[in-house]
């Protein structure tokens, strides 16, 4: 830091100063004016009696004078001075002899205080020309005066103005003020430095200002070096504590200011010394050759004299409009500090009270009576604040109260929002539960139940939301309400779909139940009217289902087109169920069973429905042929559903679509299946025919009469033994009587053939077992691989294997039958060959 320390000067001169200048009267010329002038360039000693005109540059109301330009040009003759003039200002506490000093140094006529009154003399800022000098000097209103009280606004602005415009700023202070913070204007300087940096910090290093500290009433006990060191330290410290603008964080005080320190003796106690030192000091302003000459070029603001008015006015304007300088008064500061403290204390209590809400809300629970509880916590906080803070400045108190309330509200708002979310969730859950419960009750109409449940859920939400909306807040729940309604609508749609599906499933079950038995019965009794009967059943069932659907659909409040679509779907579904049932009844075994039943009825029973016993004289062939032909004719009847006219009957207006082909649905048996069925049926019918023939042969076999005579002669003894022994007699009766009955009824042949069949079956089984033992079948290694590789093919293969086994079984039965009768028909021969081929194929597949 460039600090120029001037050696202490011990003055002996004493002088009394007793005259005072009134503001509205022309000031008397100072005695000091007679003091000999220094040898400064362009200056003259203030010896003339002429009074230098002065201007009230800025008045007490902070208004800038319009006359500065006029004074510069007309009164001070500086119009053409250009840069050849200097500007200095004095700054310091009130009544510290500033005006006195200026008058001494520059021969000016600034007002000096009347000692008997001890009151402020300089108000605002005065400016005057130094007598016979090209120096303009500003006398600035003293700081810390009782007249302004706590309003420090003007002193800050005027100090900043002085710093910003002057080349040299004289900081005037009593010796005893050195080391004090406020007394030495350090607080004020701090503010001035800070704002000066903000406003004019860009001139770093280009323009400097000299701060000349003049320590008054220096008694000499503390050397100037010590005093200046104290001041220097204080200045450094306040500079470190400044909040510097961006980009100037590292700037130093020496970038903007130079310092010079000097002392003056006590004016009253050492008047002569005072005068001498004052004159010496004057040299620094007037004598350019003086080593301590203050108006060095680096302090020049480079403003020509004729532009000074505009320049200074602009600076004042800038200072006036700067908000950073509108510093609050002490009272305001106090109010701010205390209100802040009180608000913080109240807020801590408030936070403690509301923290219990956080966990349950975050856990998704509803906090009981949250609204009143939040309100209560907020009231306690504001009441506690009001009690202590309302004593302070009303404006500050109100502002802090609003701030605290806003802070509290914003904290509570998160609970408000959390509770709204939980209300939303709860409303949705209530809706779901209540709707499901309502739908469990028989006869509940979905539309009405859903609307009622929704209304209740919304009411629940609204009630809860209104209860937590606090006064003096702009909280809103409309958005959440809208979202809730939207969610409930979606849930209603989903639930309605479920209920509709449930209803349709129920209807389908009903349709299936209605169709199953009657359709089966109709198919078991084939004939020309079979399909007519089935269609009647279908139409009746479908109509009933449609009526039921329409009735139920009304409770869902469906749109017309939705209902129409559902009816159409139901019709189609009914048709699908019908065709499924027909297909189910038309699988190979069942259809063959039906055909055989029909054939047996015709061939094995008489016109009274009794079983026929064929006599040797009976014609078996004709009834057999007739029954077989009639039965075979039934196969094409089963093959295709004969529906009623789709044009005239609305129940068959089933349009085909991508996934539904009405015409295709009519097909029951394909051509191939019909042929297969015919073949299978013929085979079974032929077996019946052979059976009938065998029974006739059995009844035809008669025993010759001589065999009976021989039996009586040869077996008389045995006969007597038999009838005389109770054991033999009872055994004979147990076996003989049933045999006699069978014989009488002509069924002995049937029993015999059954016995033969059983014998053949056992024989074939025994052979097969024996073959397995002698030639164990090789385990086909590839079969599992096929199964693994292609389950579809494998399944097909297994199906084929099963079919082959069945085929083998049928053929074995047929063979055994024919062997039993001692002959074979050509058809049987073919079949036998076929079975062999099929067996070979099956064996080949197994090997594969
Ligand atoms: N003890 C002492 N008194 C002084 C000195 N200089 C002036 N005074 C007296 O202090 C009183 C105030 O002097 P002013 O010059 O009016 O002081 P000021 O600082 O300009 O006052 P304001 O403009 O009102 O702030 C006057 O009575 C002076 O006689 C000094 O060096 N020592």
TrEMBL record:
PROSITE patterns for this protein: G_GB1_RHD3
Main location: endoplasmic reticulum
Transmembrane stretches, start-end: 703-723, 729-751
Start and end residues of each stretch annotated as Disordered: 1-47, 780-848
GB1/RHD3-type G domain segment(s): 82-299
Pfam families: RHD3_GTPase, Sey1_3HB
Topology of this chain in the membrane: Multi-pass membrane protein
Record protein name field: Dynamin-like GTPase that mediates homotypic ER fusion
Source organism (scientific name): Linnemannia gamsii
Taxonomic classification: Eukaryota, Fungi, Fungi incertae sedis, Mucoromycota, Mortierellomycotina
Gene this chain is encoded by: SEY1_1
